[in-house]
């Protein structure tokens, strides 16, 4: 396994692999791996012949006052995990390698970024799509792998790939959870024991949503009120949003009929945590 910092060396390695007819997979990450990351890497190793994992805490997707400096970093353990999983190349660039002093070109996906997290993290998705466009141009993968855990991110990047005719396949992998339902996240490390317990209410609220939709409730307002009441059980939880939106357009709905994304973002202590589920209300 190669660990590489420069764009040039990544291009050389990938070119050599492609020459041998290998199918190239890319898993973009910010490191501090947990089983969620590993599930994406394992899927890439299964589906591809040459797997690139990028580890880059991308400054342009963090807003002022967010946790860029404090974001967990565990490079040695990440490298070891990649080696164990059968990764071929780890791309771990510096910020200087990825961005010139003054970056003037940005990729912006409209509409899909106006809702949910986009309302609260201004400029976040612009940073995400720009860095992913760069990574796709550098690695030129046949397939890129993303997690459902960051559902809006996956939908936004998928749209960028389609709108800009990027020649790659896009795979979205299921959310990996702890046994108590909490979605694994690098930011769970910020939580105290009590906050970690309280955080299980996030998935409980999403399960309640699914239960209500299965029971035939169609009023978004009714479901959201019930979800909020579950989250209110823990005083440590500050709700950022609870949303039920169309699974394709991410626009709000008064009445739930087809495939919807139920999504929650909360702050618990220093952590901002998100989670979501997809429910097909037509199938109940
Ligand atoms: P991050 O390092 O947080 O930027 O995440 C890198 C990739 O891992 C993204 O595509 C995430 O959606 C995905 N990911 C993060 N947490 C999970 C999880 N619990 N289950 C599945 N995928 C995840």
Question: What key phrases describe this protein's structure?
Answer:
284 residues, alpha/beta, 6-stranded parallel sheet, 20% strand, binds adenosine monophosphate
Which term fits the overall shape?
Answer: globular
Q: DSSP strand (E) fraction?
A: 15-25%
The residue ranges in which pLDDT falls below 50 over 5 or more consecutive positions are none
Bound molecules: adenosine monophosphate
What is the number of E strands? 9
Tally of alpha and pi helices:
10
Main sheet properties: 6 strands, parallel
Tell me, rounded to a whole number, the average pLDDT: 97
Derived structural class: alpha/beta
Q: Roughly how many Å is the radius of gyration?
A: 19 Å
Topology:
Elements: E1 2-4, H1 7-19, E2 24-29, H2 35-47, E3 50-55, H3 75-85, E4 89-91, H4 95-98, H5 117-120, H6 124-139, E5 143-147, H7 151-163, E6 169-173, H8 193-198, H9 200-214, H10 220-231, E7 237-246, E8 259-268, E9 271-280
Helix pairs in contact: 6-7, 9-10
The site of adenosine monophosphate (AMP) has 17 residues, from helix 2 and strand 5.
């Amino acid at each position: 396994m190669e660990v590489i910092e420069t764009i040039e060396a990544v291009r050389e390695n990938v070119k050599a692999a492609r020459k041998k007819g290998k199918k190239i997979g890319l898993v973009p990450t910010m490191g501090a791996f947990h089983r969620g990351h590993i599930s994406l890497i394992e899927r890439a190793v299964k589906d591809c012949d040459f797997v690139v994992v990028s580890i880059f805490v991308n400054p342009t997707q963090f807003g002022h006052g967010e946790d860029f400096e404090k974001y967990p970093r565990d490079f040695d353990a990440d490298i070891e995990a990649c080696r164990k999983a059968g990764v071929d190349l780890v791309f771990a660039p510096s910020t200087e390698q990825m961005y010139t002093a003054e970056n003037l070109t940005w990729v912006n996906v409209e509409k899909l970024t106006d809702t949910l997290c986009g309302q609260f993290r201004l400029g976040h998705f612009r940073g995400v799509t720009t860095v992913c466009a760069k990574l796709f141009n550098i690695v030129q993968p046949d397939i890129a792998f993303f997690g459902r855990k960051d559902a809006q991110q996956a939908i936004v990047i998928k749209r960028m790939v389609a709108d800009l005719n990027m020649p790659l396949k896009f795979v979205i992998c299921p959310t990996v959870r702890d046994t108590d339902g909490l979605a694994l996240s690098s930011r769970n490390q910020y939580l105290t024991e009590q906050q970690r317990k309280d955080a299980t209410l996030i998935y409980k609220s999403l399960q309640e949503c699914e239960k209500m939709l299965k029971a035939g409730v169609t009023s978004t307002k009714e479901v959201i009120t019930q979800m909020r009441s579950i989250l209110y059980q823990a005083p440590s939880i500050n709700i950022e949003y609870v949303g039920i939106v169309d699974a394709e357009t991410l626009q709000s709905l008064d009445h739930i009929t087809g495939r919807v994304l139920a999504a929650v973002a909360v702050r618990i202590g220093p952590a901002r945590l998100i989670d979501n589920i997809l429910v097909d209300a037509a199938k109940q």
